[in-house]
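Re-running the complex after MR caught last week's input typo. The corrected sequence lines follow. Everything else is unchanged.
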Amino acid sequence: MKTIIKGTFFLFMMVVFPVFLIAQSLRVGKVTDLQGNAIEGATIRVKGTSNSTKTDVTGGFRIVLRPGDVIVSSSVGFMTKEIIFQQTEFLSIRLEANQAMLDDVVVVGYGSQTRQELTGAVSTLKMEEITENQVAESFESMMQGRVAGVNIQLNSGEPGATPNVIIRGLAAVSRDDGSAISEPLYVVDGVPIISRTGDEFAVTSTNVLADLNPSDIEDVTVLKDAYAAAIYGSRAANGVILITTKKGKRGKPQMNINSRTGINFVPRLLDVAGGQKEREQVARLYELYAPYGIAMPSMYTDVTNPFYNNSSNWQDYLYNTSVTQDYNASVRGAGDFGQYSVSLGYLDNEGILFNTGFKRYSMMTNTTFNALNNALVINNTLALSRTDQNRNPDALSSNFSSLLPLPNSPLVRGAEVYGLGNVSNVNDRVRFSSDVSWRIIKDLTYKVSLSLEYTRAMNDSFNQSRRTLWGTNQSAVGENRNLLFQNTLNYAPRFGNGHHLSVLVGQSAEKIESKTTKVNSVASAPLLTSNVKWPTENNIGISNYGANTLMSYFSRIDYSFQQKYLVGASIRTDGSSKFGRENRWGIFPSVSAGWNFSKEQLFQNWEWLSNGKIRGSYGMSGTTWDENYLALGLMDGGSLDQYNSLLEISYGGIAGFTPTWYNGFKNENLTWVKSQMGNVGLDLSLFNNKVEVIVDVYEKLTKGLLLTTALPTTSGYNEVYRNAADVLNRGVEFTLNNNLRSSKDFSWNMGLNFAYNKNRVVALPDGNADIIKTSTSGQDFGSIIRSGAPLNGFFFYESQGIYQAENEIPVNPKSGQRLLGLQDKKLAVGDRNFKDQNNDYIINVEDRIYAGDPNPKWTGGWTNDFYYKGFSFNLVSTFVIGRDIVNTELLERLQFGKDFAGSSSLPDFDRYSIWEKSGDNARYPSLNPWNDASQIIKYDSEYIESGSYFKIKSATLSYNLPRSVLNKLRLDRVRVYCTMDNVITFQGYSGPDAELVTVDGFDNSGGYPMRRMMLFGLSLGL
Amino acid sequence: MKSNIILMSLGCLMLVFSGCKDWLEELPINTVTEDQAWQNGSDAEGAVAAAFSIFRRGLAGLTKDDTPSTTRNGAWGDYYFWGDARSGDWITPNNDGDWQAGFENRLIARTQLEPMTNWRLFYRTIEQCNLVLERVPEITEGFTANRKAELLAETRFLRAMSHFYAARIWGDIPINLEARNVEPLGRAPLHDVMKMIVDEVEIAITDLPWEYQGMTRKLSTSRGTRGAALALQAHAYMWLKDYEGAAAKLQEIIESNYFELAPISGFRDLFDKGESNEMVFQMYYDNQFGEFSDYYGHILTYYLTNPYTSRSDLSLAIPKSRILEIFPDYQRDRSDKRVAEFFQSIDFSGSASELRPIFEDPLQNGERQIMFAKFRKVKDRSYNRMDGTVPVFRYGGLLLLKAEADARLNRVDEAMLNLNKVRRRAEIPAFTRTDQTILIEEIMAERRRELIGEFHRVYDLVRLGRLHEFNAFISEQEEKEGAGFFPVSDEAFANNPNMEQTYYWQFNQ
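Corrected-run output:
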């Protein structure tokens, strides 16, 4: 910890302190960094003597010197420099920062370690520069493309949406049980926080982590392999993200103000056929397919109808350029007493879509007091925040027919066409944590911490039907409370010839409670105001409560010999209330070893090798699920039906319990999802730390993913939860960083990382039988989990084109019956030709084949930072290679119902090859809206496209005002910058954006496009 | 000093360690877990009542909660559909496509009918009974040994009843007599199912009372009584064509003297309120206990119009000519008193916003305009709180079943005695012809008259293989292939390789 304070202190000195020239007599000097910032506390020593001194706060020093003396100047975080003293008037020593030394200490679970001694796969990301130049609702989106193996996809552009964060491959199932995404554990300053709300208790759609102001974050550490993460036991299998918030630093108080304003531009939207074109297309569909007696609505036929010649550009009306504002201010400082840090933040992000937006108000204070001669350190953190997300009740639709007049048209004066009302999502979080560290004896520290976290989510919506004017409103409150009590004892002696031992023993107890209260009302009469009358028959309130507790004991031992040979082992045992008594405790061990081979004699002569380490680890960690009482067999007392009748509760006035038919029955065997992970890594620093290469290879076997399996109806139960699937993720991660300095003024830092991951289901219960979620309605059959295929793999009908002639439709030679289409439909010319895989002359769910993998094979990012004098230019790009996605954006718009006319906008048919008559060499089948079974279905292999993309995520140009100007302004630091966010995307996908895709590979077409933002900012250090 | 402090902190840690046992006991506060649900007598009472509640819902049809994606929102009052719709007697005056498809036995083609082919709630009832039969024997607190035996017997009866009802609808059905049975069960032959029912009831019957103490007649007949159990057994024997067995069981009911035919003037109590000595087993509804239905979930929705509900046109009806054909005595001299009790003609010329008058003459209206008014509610132009009970077995029907059994055994006098009891009540002349075949035909016709709209007709015809004679959409061959039974829904095939579709429905999708 000391080193990190020192290190960051010098970093800070480098940035903040101005040059003060102090006139001195002979043998007086000053130590600065390359930028000319004074370095305090640097040691100046005359080689071969005991003659030494330290620099003061201005970097100045005095020392008695003789000509020819070798002066050795050293300081933590800088390269040691030797110069020979000549008869100089004034000694000016410039030290070069040692990049490797600066991030010398890495935060790990329940402590920290020097990077040299690290044996796990750990990546650290400094957030300072990222958060200074960019605006984001949550820090996860800023991490995109920066850490190898951490796949972050922003699959909605809606303000306040939750990005998907997947570390080292998907190990969760996208179904209605539990989370679809294998989410990591988030730990802020040593305290696991509430990072998501289980579906059962979620009342708002806002990202739970968006209330953490990214500007408060100093750095983010990602624990990727088992050794790094297993200390977090039952929640660590999907990786752990450790967040360290900014603290005060010694010296002058640091006051910072950062203020920026961004303009959000509307990106490419849906392709729409407007006005006359839409009318012609509708007329054509009626002409081709309308059954006898069905006539077109008058707005298509009657030229005097005011809608006839209308052409509304709904997207233009509903999407508009908007403004984002973000202000952050902080005061921080430190001294012998301890440190303090206060920060305030306000973000107002207007959405580009009408009636949407996101606001955040945040405050965080952190104070540390040193007592008993620094033996006792008391640390308090209080963080308060509120986020406020707005939405349309009508979801996010902008897909209205262009023949409908815009709300501002005199034709419909006042009557708004889109859904009336609005949805407000407000999340509040209060986090208070307090810890006391007590150094009992040298090297032995005891730490106790207590943390209370409270989140409250409020959802208020009012929604009125345009047609009936009936209104509904809903008001919901969800609360989460998290109580955490941790005790750790740390013994870390150094002894003998370079022996370093570190022993950690700890315990933690945690209780998480969730509660919701929801009230709905449906007005029984048309409303003219939003004050909903509450008829007694129709208001139904629901409340829910759940709690779970976790008790853990853990220990870790690390040993290093001369920082050359490293071994470590950790073990954690977790008990959770979610499990039955028999199966309550899980044990999560891990081991690791490392070899800093560059320290061996053998490599001493390899000048170019600054550092080299091989490390390996193996261990086990776990995950649980959201439902608190799943294993206990929850009983159901019934609920009021829609008419407030007790029919589903009692019989003859007597009420009783039944099983919860959807969750199966008590299952003492339900247990942790266990994840075994092996990791081998290589860290290389070359050419005096100018080039850094990190390679990791891993294999993660996740055993017993919780799945529902449908039970035979004869059992009475719908589904039962089981630890059913085993999933294997294998991958390679590669990181290359370099910092090149071509001259005094110019430098270039480049970071490239990419990761390959392959996902495969390796075992399923019941002899590897497919797990199929069958739906009772025809073609929509849900997903298949099959051994050997990846999770979420597409199982689709294989398209063979379109039937061009009657004789192309196969006939069963035995029965003489023609091939039967989906939903037992009689096939006709113009219909999709699906391959009858099992030759039974019926196209049904059994004819689905494996058709694609929505899990990205390659993910990564490429960052470039150029510095020239005060200017800097940063470019961040991210990419995904080798992913299959389904163009649901198009297919859902080609799917017409019988009453399609006027219900929504149409794409321009001319741009797609759609079958109309025999011989049309078309890609899409006939669009007959009156067809019994639609030909446009979600599981048609024709709609699978490549989801690879390369995206320039942001480009920033910034300028730091020079010292000379700053001194006049009496400011420490002034930076002006301009950032372009979501610059450009290169993709093969024909839809709008290959990133706006759900985890299971379907275009998020009901969703929200990602804005393009131009941000201007000013950051001041007072 | 220092070591003391270390000891103290270690002591603190130990305290934390020892506190963990309770720390990990988290139980829900707004419901109970399986271990908590089977503690005492009232848990047992509740669990048995819950089983009846599921069964009642099963007869009312699946709701949206019960199947993930049914195409209709809410229950329909489907029991009607199963037991009467395909009898050939019914029409839908407002041309409801779903009802029409049902009349014509197009049960798969119409996806809206899919929920009706799903037996989920029957098997849920069965599973709830299985759980009761597994867990309640362990309970000793909070009830007498006698009450415990009653509850267990009642549960056994209900489990058999659920199998019976499902078997009448689907024919061969899986038998599930074991709790938490997740094995993929295949369909057992109908014969085996009926035999199982007879045997199960035999076990239960000794513990079943004729009447529950402290319950109203209505409530008592809504539970598993000895009368209900004997009636179930008798019906099962009829399916087994063991007419001796059926007659013997029915004779026990007659001799018990617990039941009697209600007078015509008592029909409102019988059909609207369920409070009658004629009732043997019924499904309980009562607004007083909050157990009522609204638009969905009760058959009355489809039978009644204004002035009983807000419906302005008839959804289900029997054509006038068919009524006259079924009730020849009425056609001849208006003697059959049941017609005025079962049918009404509404003056549809009145304003829909007021209570419409009811004509004096029940058949005054035209061919498609006669309301089936056997079950009525108060006149208030809303669906509010429909709480008419739904009969399953009643004494009148059982007498005719006894008559059928006796007639088939050629005990003509005995058969005629019971047939004429029912005819006498309806104030139609006694039947006197002693030819066995003609007598059986007349008994079947009498059952049709007496039980019209009470969900027996189709089952009677299917039992005898005669549905094709009355339903023009089913041929004799098709009925032999199983067209009289409902198809098995897709959902029943999920995760069940042993499931088979009824032969007819394999080819008539």
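None of the earlier attempt is carried over here. The CA atoms of residues 799 and 1013 of chain A lie 40 Å apart. Chain A touches chain B through 73 residues (CB under 8 Å).
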